[in-house]
Amino acid sequence: MKKALTLGLFLLAAVAAAGTYTITTSTAQDTRLERHRVRVNKATCTAAGLPANCTQAQARVTNPGVNIYSSVQDMIDRLVLQDFLNALRLADTADDSTQFCAWFNAASTANKNSACALAGLPNGCELCN
């Protein structure tokens, strides 16, 4: 019981640490977003050979990676936000790679070999060109 409670508190703390953001939209923007959600869902369903108002479960039978959005909030979370966060992850990875390669290229042979070993590669590996 104590372990379950500890795990529960840990998970609750992780959720509490997640950001919550509010975006204010106008009525006209809400209408445009809802029309886009319906349009995207219809195109997804039609491409899968399903009725235009198919469900997520029906669409996933034909393509496990496809999304049907149940609301504008769902579409923003899974389409807009996730795509944006993936782009940011790629930018962060590029920044990290540049910074690591600057360090690696200036490092001593011993430090380079240590980095190679940590990556499971032989001494003298070329992690950066």
Output the keywords.
129 residues; mainly alpha; 5 helices; 0% strand; elongated; disordered N terminus
Topology at a glance:
Blueprint: H1 2-17, H2 27-47, H3 56-62, H4 72-106, H5 109-118
Main sheet: strands, sense, barrel: none
Give me the secondary-structure category: mainly alpha
Helical proportion, percent range: 55-70%
Overall pLDDT score = 86
Report the radius of gyration as a whole number of Å: 23 Å
Termini separation: 53 Å
Percentage of β-strand residues? under 5%
Poorly predicted runs are 1-12
Order of helices and strands: HHHHH
What report would you give on this structure?
With 129 residues, this protein is mainly alpha-helical. The chain has helices at residues 2-17, 27-47, 56-62, 72-106, 109-118.
Please give a quick description of this structure.
Helices cover 69% and strands 0% of the residues. The chain is mostly helical.
